[in-house]
Design brief:
The complex is a heterodimer of chains A (about 290) and B (about 160).
Chain A: E1 7-9, H1 14-24, E2 28-31, H2 37-42, E3 50-53, E4 63-65, E5 69-73, H3 78-83, H4 85-90, H5 92-99, H6 104-109, H7 112-117, H8 125-132, E6 135-140, E7 143-148, H9 149-152, E8 153-155, E9 158-159, E10 166-173, E11 180-186, E12 196-205, E13 208-217, E14 224-225, H10 227-233, H11 240-253, H12 264-285
Parallel strand pairs in A: 1-3, 2-3
Antiparallel strand pairs in A: 4-5, 5-10, 6-7, 6-10, 8-9, 11-12, 12-13, 13-14
Helix pairs in contact in A: 10-11, 11-12
Chain B: E1 4-10, E2 13-19, H1 25-32, E3 51-54, E4 57-60, E5 73-75, H2 89-96, H3 106-119, H4 125-131, H5 143-163
The chains are: A alpha+beta (about 290), B alpha+beta (about 160).
The complex binds flavin-adenine dinucleotide and FE2/S2 (inorganic) cluster (FES) (2 copies).
Protein backbone atom coordinates (compact mmCIF):
# COMPACT_ATOMS: atom_id res chain seq x y z
CA UNK A 1 0.00 0.00 0.00
CA UNK A 2 1.61 3.20 -1.17
CA UNK A 3 0.58 6.63 0.03
CA UNK A 4 0.16 9.68 -2.15
CA UNK A 5 3.31 11.63 -2.93
CA UNK A 6 4.42 14.45 -0.65
CA UNK A 7 7.33 16.70 0.24
CA UNK A 8 8.87 15.91 3.60
CA UNK A 9 9.93 18.60 6.07
CA UNK A 10 11.68 18.19 9.39
CA UNK A 11 11.63 21.61 11.06
CA UNK A 12 14.07 22.38 13.89
CA UNK A 13 11.74 24.58 15.94
CA UNK A 14 8.03 24.84 16.68
CA UNK A 15 8.00 28.28 15.06
CA UNK A 16 9.44 26.83 11.85
CA UNK A 17 6.82 24.07 11.95
CA UNK A 18 4.05 26.65 12.33
CA UNK A 19 5.50 28.71 9.48
CA UNK A 20 5.44 25.64 7.25
CA UNK A 21 1.84 24.87 8.25
CA UNK A 22 0.79 28.45 7.52
CA UNK A 23 2.59 28.41 4.20
CA UNK A 24 1.02 25.19 2.95
CA UNK A 25 -2.50 25.65 4.30
CA UNK A 26 -4.79 22.72 3.51
CA UNK A 27 -1.98 20.87 1.77
CA UNK A 28 0.19 20.65 4.86
CA UNK A 29 -0.13 18.21 7.72
CA UNK A 30 2.02 17.50 10.73
CA UNK A 31 3.16 13.97 11.45
CA UNK A 32 3.94 12.88 15.01
CA UNK A 33 4.17 9.10 15.55
CA UNK A 34 2.35 8.58 12.26
CA UNK A 35 0.42 5.59 13.57
CA UNK A 36 -2.97 7.11 12.82
CA UNK A 37 -1.87 9.26 9.88
CA UNK A 38 0.17 6.76 7.85
CA UNK A 39 -2.64 4.15 7.80
CA UNK A 40 -5.03 6.93 6.68
CA UNK A 41 -2.58 7.99 3.98
CA UNK A 42 -2.26 4.42 2.75
CA UNK A 43 -6.03 4.31 2.35
CA UNK A 44 -5.82 7.75 0.67
CA UNK A 45 -8.25 9.06 3.25
CA UNK A 46 -5.52 11.63 3.82
CA UNK A 47 -3.28 12.89 1.05
CA UNK A 48 -1.26 15.85 2.30
CA UNK A 49 1.27 17.18 -0.21
CA UNK A 50 3.52 18.48 2.56
CA UNK A 51 4.31 16.39 5.59
CA UNK A 52 5.81 18.29 8.50
CA UNK A 53 7.57 15.93 10.91
CA UNK A 54 7.62 17.03 14.55
CA UNK A 55 10.19 14.36 15.50
CA UNK A 56 13.12 16.75 15.92
CA UNK A 57 11.28 19.13 18.26
CA UNK A 58 12.66 18.28 21.69
CA UNK A 59 10.69 21.17 23.16
CA UNK A 60 7.52 19.08 22.58
CA UNK A 61 8.82 16.14 24.64
CA UNK A 62 8.74 15.33 28.32
CA UNK A 63 6.56 14.85 31.37
CA UNK A 64 6.55 17.38 34.23
CA UNK A 65 4.66 16.37 37.37
CA UNK A 66 4.00 19.07 39.96
CA UNK A 67 1.52 19.59 42.78
CA UNK A 68 -0.71 21.89 40.76
CA UNK A 69 -0.48 20.49 37.27
CA UNK A 70 0.95 17.73 35.15
CA UNK A 71 2.25 18.93 31.79
CA UNK A 72 2.96 16.37 29.09
CA UNK A 73 4.62 17.44 25.85
CA UNK A 74 2.70 16.53 22.72
CA UNK A 75 5.50 14.33 21.34
CA UNK A 76 5.66 12.16 24.47
CA UNK A 77 4.93 8.59 23.42
CA UNK A 78 2.47 6.17 24.96
CA UNK A 79 5.45 3.97 25.83
CA UNK A 80 7.03 6.85 27.77
CA UNK A 81 3.75 7.48 29.59
CA UNK A 82 3.65 3.84 30.73
CA UNK A 83 7.28 3.98 31.88
CA UNK A 84 7.08 7.21 33.92
CA UNK A 85 6.98 6.39 37.64
CA UNK A 86 6.28 9.91 38.90
CA UNK A 87 3.31 10.16 36.56
CA UNK A 88 1.99 6.75 37.57
CA UNK A 89 2.20 7.76 41.24
CA UNK A 90 0.11 10.92 40.83
CA UNK A 91 -2.17 10.02 37.95
CA UNK A 92 -2.23 6.22 37.46
CA UNK A 93 -5.15 6.27 35.02
CA UNK A 94 -2.77 7.51 32.29
CA UNK A 95 -0.58 4.41 32.54
CA UNK A 96 -3.67 2.22 32.69
CA UNK A 97 -5.12 3.84 29.57
CA UNK A 98 -1.88 3.90 27.57
CA UNK A 99 -1.42 0.19 28.25
CA UNK A 100 -4.85 -0.48 26.71
CA UNK A 101 -3.93 1.32 23.48
CA UNK A 102 -2.88 -0.76 20.50
CA UNK A 103 0.21 -2.95 21.02
CA UNK A 104 3.85 -2.44 22.10
CA UNK A 105 5.15 -1.42 18.68
CA UNK A 106 2.42 1.18 18.18
CA UNK A 107 3.01 2.57 21.67
CA UNK A 108 6.71 3.19 21.00
CA UNK A 109 5.68 5.54 18.17
CA UNK A 110 2.22 6.84 19.00
CA UNK A 111 2.24 10.13 20.86
CA UNK A 112 -0.15 11.68 23.36
CA UNK A 113 -0.44 14.78 21.17
CA UNK A 114 -1.32 12.73 18.11
CA UNK A 115 -3.82 10.68 20.07
CA UNK A 116 -5.73 13.70 21.36
CA UNK A 117 -5.35 15.90 18.24
CA UNK A 118 -6.40 13.20 15.80
CA UNK A 119 -10.13 13.55 16.50
CA UNK A 120 -10.93 9.89 15.86
CA UNK A 121 -13.68 8.89 18.32
CA UNK A 122 -11.86 5.56 18.76
CA UNK A 123 -8.84 7.18 20.38
CA UNK A 124 -8.69 6.42 24.09
CA UNK A 125 -6.90 9.42 25.59
CA UNK A 126 -9.48 12.12 24.70
CA UNK A 127 -12.20 10.79 27.04
CA UNK A 128 -9.64 10.36 29.80
CA UNK A 129 -8.53 13.97 29.30
CA UNK A 130 -12.16 15.11 29.49
CA UNK A 131 -12.62 13.10 32.67
CA UNK A 132 -9.50 14.66 34.23
CA UNK A 133 -10.47 18.18 33.17
CA UNK A 134 -7.33 18.57 31.03
CA UNK A 135 -6.67 21.34 28.55
CA UNK A 136 -4.66 21.44 25.36
CA UNK A 137 -2.06 24.08 24.59
CA UNK A 138 -2.23 25.21 20.98
CA UNK A 139 0.32 27.41 19.26
CA UNK A 140 -0.23 29.17 15.94
CA UNK A 141 1.06 32.16 14.01
CA UNK A 142 -0.79 34.48 16.41
CA UNK A 143 0.52 32.97 19.62
CA UNK A 144 -0.68 30.49 22.20
CA UNK A 145 -4.08 29.57 23.56
CA UNK A 146 -5.52 26.82 25.67
CA UNK A 147 -8.68 24.83 24.97
CA UNK A 148 -10.39 22.54 27.46
CA UNK A 149 -10.57 18.90 26.32
CA UNK A 150 -14.29 19.10 27.10
CA UNK A 151 -14.67 21.84 24.44
CA UNK A 152 -12.17 20.57 21.90
CA UNK A 153 -14.05 17.89 19.95
CA UNK A 154 -16.64 19.05 17.42
CA UNK A 155 -17.32 16.02 15.22
CA UNK A 156 -15.36 13.01 13.99
CA UNK A 157 -11.98 14.40 12.86
CA UNK A 158 -13.12 17.98 13.50
CA UNK A 159 -11.63 19.74 16.48
CA UNK A 160 -11.17 23.28 17.76
CA UNK A 161 -7.57 23.25 16.50
CA UNK A 162 -7.06 25.59 13.54
CA UNK A 163 -5.19 24.22 10.51
CA UNK A 164 -2.14 26.35 11.27
CA UNK A 165 -1.95 25.46 14.96
CA UNK A 166 0.20 22.84 16.64
CA UNK A 167 -0.82 21.14 19.85
CA UNK A 168 2.27 21.62 22.01
CA UNK A 169 1.27 20.09 25.34
CA UNK A 170 -1.51 18.63 27.44
CA UNK A 171 -2.03 20.16 30.87
CA UNK A 172 -3.82 18.13 33.52
CA UNK A 173 -4.81 19.51 36.94
CA UNK A 174 -2.97 17.14 39.26
CA UNK A 175 -5.63 14.80 40.67
CA UNK A 176 -6.20 15.09 44.42
CA UNK A 177 -4.13 12.77 46.58
CA UNK A 178 -6.33 9.80 47.47
CA UNK A 179 -8.51 10.11 44.38
CA UNK A 180 -9.62 6.96 42.60
CA UNK A 181 -9.78 6.65 38.84
CA UNK A 182 -10.24 3.88 36.32
CA UNK A 183 -10.47 3.37 32.58
CA UNK A 184 -12.59 0.41 31.49
CA UNK A 185 -12.33 -0.61 27.85
CA UNK A 186 -14.18 -3.40 26.11
CA UNK A 187 -12.35 -4.52 22.97
CA UNK A 188 -12.46 -7.56 20.75
CA UNK A 189 -8.73 -8.24 20.84
CA UNK A 190 -5.37 -6.65 21.60
CA UNK A 191 -4.83 -3.66 19.37
CA UNK A 192 -8.51 -3.01 18.78
CA UNK A 193 -10.34 0.22 19.34
CA UNK A 194 -13.01 0.21 22.02
CA UNK A 195 -16.45 -1.27 21.44
CA UNK A 196 -17.20 1.07 24.34
CA UNK A 197 -15.04 2.48 27.10
CA UNK A 198 -15.46 4.71 30.14
CA UNK A 199 -13.18 6.87 32.27
CA UNK A 200 -14.18 7.68 35.84
CA UNK A 201 -12.44 9.78 38.48
CA UNK A 202 -13.81 10.37 41.97
CA UNK A 203 -12.87 11.44 45.46
CA UNK A 204 -14.37 10.17 48.71
CA UNK A 205 -14.69 11.70 52.14
CA UNK A 206 -16.04 9.60 54.99
CA UNK A 207 -17.62 7.16 52.53
CA UNK A 208 -19.39 9.92 50.61
CA UNK A 209 -18.43 10.67 47.04
CA UNK A 210 -17.32 14.31 46.99
CA UNK A 211 -16.49 14.82 43.33
CA UNK A 212 -16.94 12.62 40.29
CA UNK A 213 -16.46 12.89 36.56
CA UNK A 214 -17.30 10.46 33.80
CA UNK A 215 -16.45 10.37 30.07
CA UNK A 216 -16.97 7.83 27.29
CA UNK A 217 -14.90 6.61 24.32
CA UNK A 218 -16.16 5.50 20.90
CA UNK A 219 -19.89 5.63 21.49
CA UNK A 220 -20.45 8.82 19.52
CA UNK A 221 -18.83 11.05 16.93
CA UNK A 222 -16.64 12.54 19.63
CA UNK A 223 -15.52 11.53 23.10
CA UNK A 224 -18.38 12.32 25.47
CA UNK A 225 -18.07 14.08 28.81
CA UNK A 226 -21.19 13.05 30.71
CA UNK A 227 -21.74 15.77 33.27
CA UNK A 228 -25.02 14.25 34.50
CA UNK A 229 -23.28 10.98 35.34
CA UNK A 230 -20.75 12.76 37.56
CA UNK A 231 -23.58 14.71 39.21
CA UNK A 232 -25.46 11.49 39.93
CA UNK A 233 -22.44 10.16 41.83
CA UNK A 234 -21.29 13.30 43.63
CA UNK A 235 -22.85 13.66 47.07
CA UNK A 236 -23.97 10.04 47.16
CA UNK A 237 -22.60 7.09 49.08
CA UNK A 238 -22.03 5.38 45.70
CA UNK A 239 -24.99 3.18 46.58
CA UNK A 240 -26.69 1.16 43.90
CA UNK A 241 -29.29 3.85 43.13
CA UNK A 242 -26.63 6.50 42.52
CA UNK A 243 -24.46 4.24 40.39
CA UNK A 244 -27.49 3.15 38.38
CA UNK A 245 -28.41 6.79 37.80
CA UNK A 246 -24.88 7.44 36.50
CA UNK A 247 -25.11 4.40 34.24
CA UNK A 248 -28.46 5.61 32.91
CA UNK A 249 -27.01 9.07 32.26
CA UNK A 250 -24.12 7.52 30.29
CA UNK A 251 -26.49 5.36 28.27
CA UNK A 252 -28.61 8.39 27.48
CA UNK A 253 -25.57 10.39 26.36
CA UNK A 254 -24.15 7.61 24.17
CA UNK A 255 -24.95 7.78 20.46
CA UNK A 256 -23.17 4.76 19.04
CA UNK A 257 -23.65 3.54 15.49
CA UNK A 258 -23.93 -0.11 14.49
CA UNK A 259 -20.65 -1.35 13.07
CA UNK A 260 -18.37 -4.38 13.05
CA UNK A 261 -17.99 -4.03 16.80
CA UNK A 262 -21.69 -4.59 17.34
CA UNK A 263 -25.17 -3.13 16.99
CA UNK A 264 -25.86 0.31 18.42
CA UNK A 265 -28.06 -1.02 21.25
CA UNK A 266 -25.38 -3.42 22.38
CA UNK A 267 -22.73 -0.70 22.38
CA UNK A 268 -24.97 1.65 24.35
CA UNK A 269 -25.61 -1.11 26.86
CA UNK A 270 -21.87 -1.72 27.05
CA UNK A 271 -21.17 1.96 27.70
CA UNK A 272 -23.30 1.59 30.84
CA UNK A 273 -21.50 -1.59 31.86
CA UNK A 274 -18.13 0.14 31.44
CA UNK A 275 -19.27 3.03 33.64
CA UNK A 276 -20.46 0.66 36.36
CA UNK A 277 -17.17 -1.25 36.37
CA UNK A 278 -15.07 1.91 36.25
CA UNK A 279 -16.98 3.43 39.20
CA UNK A 280 -16.49 0.22 41.16
CA UNK A 281 -12.75 0.13 40.50
CA UNK A 282 -12.29 3.86 41.10
CA UNK A 283 -14.11 3.52 44.41
CA UNK A 284 -11.82 0.68 45.52
CA UNK A 285 -8.79 2.72 44.59
CA UNK A 286 -9.89 5.90 46.35
CA UNK A 287 -8.93 6.61 49.93
CA UNK A 288 -12.15 6.65 51.95
CA UNK B 1 8.24 13.25 -6.60
CA UNK B 2 11.97 13.84 -6.33
CA UNK B 3 14.04 11.22 -4.61
CA UNK B 4 16.26 12.22 -1.75
CA UNK B 5 19.26 10.51 -0.26
CA UNK B 6 18.29 8.64 2.89
CA UNK B 7 21.06 7.45 5.16
CA UNK B 8 20.98 5.37 8.32
CA UNK B 9 22.91 2.65 10.09
CA UNK B 10 21.51 -0.83 9.51
CA UNK B 11 22.95 -3.71 11.53
CA UNK B 12 26.02 -1.62 12.29
CA UNK B 13 26.68 -0.69 8.66
CA UNK B 14 26.25 2.86 7.33
CA UNK B 15 23.93 2.78 4.33
CA UNK B 16 22.59 5.38 1.94
CA UNK B 17 20.11 5.08 -0.91
CA UNK B 18 17.77 7.27 -2.89
CA UNK B 19 14.10 7.11 -1.98
CA UNK B 20 10.92 9.07 -2.47
CA UNK B 21 9.62 10.57 0.78
CA UNK B 22 6.64 8.21 0.56
CA UNK B 23 8.81 5.10 0.47
CA UNK B 24 7.97 3.02 3.52
CA UNK B 25 10.92 1.80 5.57
CA UNK B 26 10.00 -1.85 4.90
CA UNK B 27 10.30 -1.28 1.14
CA UNK B 28 13.48 0.73 1.58
CA UNK B 29 15.06 -2.13 3.53
CA UNK B 30 13.85 -4.90 1.25
CA UNK B 31 13.93 -3.35 -2.20
CA UNK B 32 16.69 -0.78 -1.97
CA UNK B 33 19.04 -2.46 0.50
CA UNK B 34 18.22 -6.12 -0.13
CA UNK B 35 17.56 -6.69 3.58
CA UNK B 36 14.67 -9.13 3.31
CA UNK B 37 14.49 -10.40 6.90
CA UNK B 38 11.68 -8.02 7.82
CA UNK B 39 8.59 -9.38 6.06
CA UNK B 40 5.51 -7.75 4.66
CA UNK B 41 2.54 -9.49 6.26
CA UNK B 42 -0.48 -7.23 6.36
CA UNK B 43 1.00 -3.85 5.40
CA UNK B 44 -1.71 -2.36 7.60
CA UNK B 45 0.15 -2.08 10.93
CA UNK B 46 -1.45 -5.16 12.46
CA UNK B 47 0.74 -8.26 12.16
CA UNK B 48 4.24 -7.24 13.27
CA UNK B 49 6.06 -9.32 10.60
CA UNK B 50 7.83 -6.13 9.50
CA UNK B 51 9.10 -5.28 13.02
CA UNK B 52 12.60 -3.80 13.21
CA UNK B 53 14.44 -2.11 16.07
CA UNK B 54 14.99 1.62 15.60
CA UNK B 55 17.00 3.58 18.16
CA UNK B 56 15.96 1.14 20.88
CA UNK B 57 12.30 0.85 19.94
CA UNK B 58 10.39 -1.95 18.24
CA UNK B 59 8.73 -0.42 15.19
CA UNK B 60 6.48 -1.76 12.46
CA UNK B 61 8.52 -0.72 9.44
CA UNK B 62 5.40 -0.71 7.23
CA UNK B 63 4.08 2.23 9.23
CA UNK B 64 7.09 4.51 8.99
CA UNK B 65 8.49 6.36 6.01
CA UNK B 66 12.17 5.69 5.40
CA UNK B 67 12.86 9.43 5.65
CA UNK B 68 11.59 9.36 9.24
CA UNK B 69 14.45 6.97 10.06
CA UNK B 70 17.07 9.31 8.57
CA UNK B 71 20.16 9.06 10.78
CA UNK B 72 18.72 6.25 12.91
CA UNK B 73 20.29 3.01 14.18
CA UNK B 74 18.26 0.18 12.69
CA UNK B 75 18.56 -3.45 13.71
CA UNK B 76 16.89 -6.26 11.76
CA UNK B 77 16.93 -10.02 12.22
CA UNK B 78 20.00 -10.10 9.95
CA UNK B 79 21.89 -8.31 12.71
CA UNK B 80 21.11 -10.87 15.42
CA UNK B 81 23.59 -13.67 14.71
CA UNK B 82 27.31 -13.31 15.33
CA UNK B 83 29.68 -12.40 12.47
CA UNK B 84 30.65 -16.08 12.20
CA UNK B 85 27.03 -17.13 11.90
CA UNK B 86 26.60 -18.25 15.53
CA UNK B 87 22.94 -17.85 16.38
CA UNK B 88 21.97 -15.35 19.04
CA UNK B 89 20.50 -16.84 22.20
CA UNK B 90 16.99 -15.78 21.12
CA UNK B 91 17.39 -17.44 17.73
CA UNK B 92 18.71 -20.54 19.47
CA UNK B 93 15.62 -20.49 21.70
CA UNK B 94 13.30 -20.45 18.71
CA UNK B 95 15.18 -23.42 17.26
CA UNK B 96 15.32 -25.44 20.49
CA UNK B 97 11.70 -24.84 21.47
CA UNK B 98 10.21 -25.12 17.98
CA UNK B 99 9.11 -21.50 18.12
CA UNK B 100 8.42 -21.44 14.40
CA UNK B 101 6.73 -23.45 11.70
CA UNK B 102 6.50 -21.60 8.39
CA UNK B 103 8.85 -18.91 9.72
CA UNK B 104 7.03 -15.96 8.22
CA UNK B 105 6.43 -14.17 11.52
CA UNK B 106 9.79 -15.20 12.98
CA UNK B 107 12.00 -12.22 12.05
CA UNK B 108 9.45 -9.88 13.61
CA UNK B 109 9.06 -12.12 16.66
CA UNK B 110 12.81 -12.34 17.22
CA UNK B 111 13.39 -8.63 16.74
CA UNK B 112 10.56 -7.80 19.13
CA UNK B 113 11.71 -10.41 21.67
CA UNK B 114 15.18 -8.84 21.55
CA UNK B 115 13.85 -5.44 22.67
CA UNK B 116 11.52 -7.04 25.23
CA UNK B 117 14.46 -8.84 26.87
CA UNK B 118 16.54 -5.66 26.84
CA UNK B 119 13.81 -3.93 28.83
CA UNK B 120 12.57 -6.90 30.86
CA UNK B 121 15.41 -9.41 31.21
CA UNK B 122 13.41 -11.92 33.24
CA UNK B 123 9.83 -11.73 31.98
CA UNK B 124 6.95 -13.82 33.27
CA UNK B 125 4.81 -15.73 30.79
CA UNK B 126 2.23 -12.98 31.05
CA UNK B 127 4.83 -10.29 30.35
CA UNK B 128 6.03 -12.21 27.30
CA UNK B 129 2.52 -12.56 25.94
CA UNK B 130 1.81 -8.88 26.54
CA UNK B 131 5.18 -7.87 25.12
CA UNK B 132 4.64 -9.88 21.94
CA UNK B 133 1.00 -8.90 21.52
CA UNK B 134 1.82 -6.82 18.44
CA UNK B 135 3.12 -9.87 16.58
CA UNK B 136 0.74 -12.35 15.01
CA UNK B 137 1.58 -15.96 14.16
CA UNK B 138 -0.72 -18.11 12.03
CA UNK B 139 1.07 -21.38 12.75
CA UNK B 140 2.39 -22.06 16.21
CA UNK B 141 -0.42 -21.15 18.58
CA UNK B 142 2.20 -19.02 20.39
CA UNK B 143 2.97 -21.55 23.13
CA UNK B 144 6.38 -22.47 21.74
CA UNK B 145 7.18 -18.85 20.99
CA UNK B 146 6.63 -18.03 24.65
CA UNK B 147 8.84 -20.97 25.59
CA UNK B 148 11.53 -19.79 23.17
CA UNK B 149 11.64 -16.38 24.82
CA UNK B 150 11.76 -17.97 28.28
CA UNK B 151 14.61 -20.20 27.07
CA UNK B 152 16.52 -17.12 25.91
CA UNK B 153 15.78 -15.20 29.10
CA UNK B 154 17.03 -18.04 31.29
CA UNK B 155 20.16 -18.60 29.25
CA UNK B 156 20.97 -14.88 29.15
CA UNK B 157 20.47 -14.67 32.92
CA UNK B 158 22.77 -17.66 33.46
CA UNK B 159 25.41 -16.11 31.18
CA UNK B 160 25.19 -12.87 33.10
CA UNK B 161 25.55 -14.60 36.46
CA UNK B 162 28.52 -16.62 35.20
CA UNK B 163 30.20 -13.41 34.07
CA UNK B 164 29.74 -11.73 37.46
C1 LIG C 1 -2.77 -1.33 14.91
C2 LIG C 1 -3.14 -0.04 15.59
C3 LIG C 1 -3.99 -0.08 16.69
C4 LIG C 1 -4.33 1.10 17.35
N1 LIG C 1 -5.16 1.02 18.44
C5 LIG C 1 -5.46 2.14 19.11
C6 LIG C 1 -6.29 2.09 20.27
O1 LIG C 1 -6.72 1.04 20.72
N2 LIG C 1 -6.57 3.26 20.91
C7 LIG C 1 -6.08 4.46 20.48
O2 LIG C 1 -6.36 5.47 21.10
N3 LIG C 1 -5.30 4.53 19.39
C8 LIG C 1 -4.98 3.40 18.70
N4 LIG C 1 -4.19 3.50 17.59
C9 LIG C 1 -3.72 4.82 17.16
C10 LIG C 1 -2.40 5.17 17.81
O3 LIG C 1 -2.54 5.28 19.21
C11 LIG C 1 -1.85 6.49 17.23
O4 LIG C 1 -0.48 6.47 17.45
C12 LIG C 1 -2.42 7.75 17.81
O5 LIG C 1 -3.80 7.79 17.65
C13 LIG C 1 -1.90 8.99 17.06
O6 LIG C 1 -0.68 9.35 17.53
P1 LIG C 1 0.51 9.58 16.52
O7 LIG C 1 1.58 10.21 17.30
O8 LIG C 1 0.81 8.32 15.85
O9 LIG C 1 -0.12 10.67 15.52
P2 LIG C 1 -0.08 10.84 13.95
O10 LIG C 1 -0.59 9.64 13.29
O11 LIG C 1 1.25 11.33 13.54
O12 LIG C 1 -1.12 12.04 13.79
C14 LIG C 1 -2.52 11.86 13.94
C15 LIG C 1 -3.23 13.15 13.55
O13 LIG C 1 -3.00 14.16 14.51
C16 LIG C 1 -2.31 15.27 13.94
N5 LIG C 1 -1.29 15.65 14.92
C17 LIG C 1 -0.39 14.82 15.52
N6 LIG C 1 0.34 15.48 16.41
C18 LIG C 1 -0.09 16.78 16.38
C19 LIG C 1 0.28 17.95 17.08
N7 LIG C 1 1.23 17.94 18.03
N8 LIG C 1 -0.38 19.11 16.79
C20 LIG C 1 -1.34 19.13 15.85
N9 LIG C 1 -1.74 18.04 15.16
C21 LIG C 1 -1.13 16.87 15.42
C22 LIG C 1 -1.74 14.78 12.62
O14 LIG C 1 -1.64 15.81 11.67
C23 LIG C 1 -2.76 13.74 12.22
O15 LIG C 1 -3.86 14.35 11.61
C24 LIG C 1 -3.82 2.34 16.90
C25 LIG C 1 -2.97 2.38 15.81
C26 LIG C 1 -2.62 1.21 15.15
C27 LIG C 1 -1.71 1.31 13.97
S1 LIG D 1 3.41 -5.75 7.58
FE1 LIG D 1 3.76 -4.21 9.06
S2 LIG D 1 2.43 -4.75 10.67
FE2 LIG D 1 1.95 -6.26 9.14
S1 LIG E 1 5.49 -19.59 12.14
FE1 LIG E 1 4.11 -19.34 10.50
S2 LIG E 1 3.25 -17.38 10.97
FE2 LIG E 1 4.40 -17.80 12.72
Amino acid sequence: MITGAFDYHRPRSVDDAIALLSQHGDEGRVIAGGHSLVPMMKLRLAAPSHLIDLAALDELKGIAVADQAIVIGAMTTQHEIIADQALAARCPILRETAALIADPQVRYCGTLGGNVANGDPGNDMPAVMQCLGASYRLRGPNGERSVAARDFYEAAYFTARADDEILTAVEIPTPAAGHGAAYEKQKRKVGDYATAAAAVMLTLAGGTCETASVALTNVGETPLFVEAAGQALAGSGLDDAAVTAAVEAARAAAEPVSDLRGPADYRRHLAGVMVRRAVERARRRAAA
Amino acid sequence: MAKTAVSMTVNGRAVEALAEPRTLLIHFLRDQLGITGPHVGCETSHCGACTVDIDGKSVKSCTLFAVQAQGAEVLTVEGMAGADGTLSVIQEGFMQEHGLQCGYCTPGMITRAYRLLQETPNPSEEQIRWGLSGNLCRCTGYQNIVKAVRYAAEKLQAQKEAAE
